[in-house]
Amino acid sequence: MKGLSLQWRITIMTALLTCAACVLTNCLVGYTGMRYMDAIGSDISAFNATGEDSLQAFDPTKAALDDKVTIVVNDAQESFGMTAWYITAGVTLLGGALAYFVSGRALKPLRAFAAQVERVQPDNLSEIRLNEDVPTELQRCSASFNDMIARLGEGFSAQRQFTGNAAHELRTPLALMQAQIELFISEHSGLQPETAELLGLLQEQTERMSRMTKVLLEMSELRSVPCEDDVELGPLSEEVLTDLAPLAENKGIALNCAGDALVIGSDTLLYRLVFNLVENAIRYSRPGSTVNVSICDNNSRVFLRVEDQGPGIPKQYRESIFQPFFRLDKSRCRAYGGAGLGLALVWEIAALHGGTVEVETSSENGTTMLASLPKRSAALTEQ
Asked: Which of 44, 162, 183, 336 is the most buried (most CB within 10 A)?
């Protein structure tokens, strides 16, 4: 029963209750009817045996007449019993069908309520509000849900504002620290090895923190970027591969791109989406391997795949990697300068464009990341 919908549960329960009531009624009526048939047969036999108008008790010595009457009575009882069971089955089926359609109509407001809830996404909390013109039983639920959405929207807005403010405040002192370290290194060429190593570590960590604050600032400002441009993903991906060619050449990795499709969105944000996916693929691919970018579409969606030949992603982490600051291998991320924000930014950009991003396949031979975006015509229809 747990796997059945509420409508089917109501239907089955109603059908069982109807069947039980019909069986009980059938047994009672059948037992009573057959008793009366036996009594009528006894009276007829007795009447025919005496030839009188008065009714007498059944006389078993009148065998000839009793046999004929018994046959007629037995046939009537069998016909009565079969008819009663047919009626029971028919009433049960009719009751179940009526229960299914009546419960479906009764549950229609609940389905509409569920459909409205399914449209709620993290990126549209400020736009979605459930209709409170619903049956009395759902009014309180709708009002409470709207209040919860409003509180969540305020919480996310405050979080983005805090992130943006923090990134702004950190960016200036970090830039100053980075400049001072570079100036000190350039002015003091004959440093002790320990001092040079320390300054190198400081410079590396300062650059890493600067990149982190830049990504945080970008994430906090995503909502303010207009997404109304016609973007050709093929040329955009080629531009990304050109910009990342030096990084790929350092590891001897070949970059390939195939396909094209038109989407509506922000050219800047979609560039960042493709850039982060390809950069991530290059950093974690084996030296001398290949990173492939492919673009295809169907009637309503555009699919961008980035395939690498890295070590793969364990199944239990294939959703967690899109969370901010999540890193599979912290030592490897430190070596590559990662902060666990690249894929989180990709997820945010895809969601802002009405799309999704996921790990399509992954094994020890490599990983394929799939970004699905609305096609241009579909995106215009949604707007």
From this structure: 44
